[in-house]
Amino acid sequence: MKKSAIGYEFEHIQWYDFFNAYEKGVQKMEKHVQQFVQDLEFGDKQRRYDAFLQLMEITKEQVDWAYDVWETLIHYLSHKDNHMRAIAAQLLCQLAKSDREKRIVQDFKHVLEVTKDKRFVTARHSLQSLWKIGLVGEEQQSIVMEGLRARYEECIHEKNTTLIRYDIIVSLKKWYDVKSDNKIKDLANTLIELEEDEKYQKKYRKEWRGLL
């Protein structure tokens, strides 16, 4: 067991308490959902991917079992397998709407860290999901806006600067399309103005289709 920046990194999460709770009637998951969660850790690559897709579909709506898997997903953010890190980040973003206790406010920094993952595909999938957290409430909106602003500014020193910035601008547009909050539009405009390359400024503005 290895110490990571956000806790302990487990090769396999211990599921004893998880299933014990289910047997006692505390677990709110339906059996097929429970199987999907189990397949994330113990299934082969195809079963894991299929389970992930199913869980992403289910969690488009609020669910009452978010806290049954929350800490497990937090641990997965530092899993040795980059696919598991990406899965955890995306599911936590999706589960934010079911997070009545606002745990994501404290745990957001851990999700944000995955947007800097050494595997860029993992970082990118995580970054593209962050805006969903901002749909939930004012406090969540604030931390996401600050997180995206920070990533946009600090990525100037990273290898994939233009892709990161593009993903952030596109994410803000998706967010604005749902919420129609001028704070989101203003942030997008502010960030685009920071881009010194006129070619990329035009590319980013194009995603907003004349709204900026």
TrEMBL record:
Gene3D superfamilies: Leucine-rich Repeat Variant. It comes from the Bacteria. This is HEAT repeat domain-containing protein.
